[in-house]
Amino acid sequence: MDSEEGEFVVYGDCGSAEDAQFDQLVGAIEDFMVNLDQDAMLAKLPPFFSVSDEHERHKIHRELLKRVDADLDEHVLKNCQSIGSMENAVRILESRKEEISEDVLDFVSDGFLDYNIFVEAWEKRDQ
């Protein structure tokens, strides 16, 4: 590798195949998170004030989370082909939970958007 100080070589153990899978998986999730376009998702929703029922707003939020989860699954499987299935991905993540950043862990555990933040952003979009 080259740097401002000159060329250098990295030596050492690159880890196991499971280490590589874990790194690839977390990297794919981080890539998905960075590229997630919340504004584009909100733009597809009906006008906020046209949905006055709180139950319907919760339903729209759940549907949005399901879509994001499905898109994340697709992204992970496309970019981490050695993992093979989402069941394997979940197993890998759970086995190394303590090594995952809080942001990534929250994203995969709780969803990308809290309901109250979702409603606030949706309402603000229409103002």
UniProtKB/TrEMBL annotation:
Source superkingdom: Eukaryota
Official protein name in the record: ARF-like 2-binding protein
